[in-house]
Amino acid sequence: MGRMAAGYCLVRSPYDASSLRRVSLDPAEVECIVFWTRAPRGLASRAREIERMGFRFYAHVTLNAYPRAVEPGCLGVEAGIDALRDLAGAIGPDRVLWRYDPIFVAEGLGADFHRSAFERIAAALEGSTRRVTLSLLDEYAGTAARLGRAGFPNAVFGSPRSRSRTGGADGAAAPYPALLKDIAAMARGRGIEPVACAEPYDLSPYGIGRARCVDAALVARLRGEAPVDGVLDKGQRPGCGCAPSVDIGAYGTCPAGCAYCYANRGTGRLVARGSEDESL
What is the pTM of this model? Predict the structure, then answer.
């Protein structure tokens, strides 16, 4: 809120901490703000204020049901459901995009866990969101070790570092095909469109479309404009459907400490920032 009031922010390069980029937050220059959050109540409480400042925005809200050992700093399921509903009540269900993301199975955490959890959440969110974004967990350095320490070893990754361990190049490893088909059917049964984020597989046979997390069509609707076919963000992964955007987030600032997170630098560690960084 402080940076929006100031009209700009400075963003550090994740590759070079001494490199700063100034990004305008002038409402006249910002087409739309897309928020990603796991704790949407703060956004719900400030939504009208943000709109009075002249910003258009929508939000992705991640809500899973993993055990506390996997997501130690996240809201519980019931609190998360209530918070997402609060945000939908403030800005409308078309502007609240649910993320059941990422999906992984491992020893002690099977496909039936996800079937039960997804149905429970989808039933509770019916009418509060129109879209759910899915993705299979990718393997990054340290991911398998952190999940093992959390009590869930031998995770099956959607995009493993070594495909010979968990699946071929042409499709997701078992049990994901059957699981994704079931999840998609559950979502559609609740009036929620299932889409997948940057997966290297064609999931349309399971009833799952391609995600556009930074969605040019949704932005156009918020701006009262006719949707147009826009260019894709060339800086994203293959399969990404996002329009060009600027990421002003910072690594090391999330207190959730999720075991699967590629940006996890430790369990829930926050980066301490000095007064010289107040403009970031």
Answer: 0.90
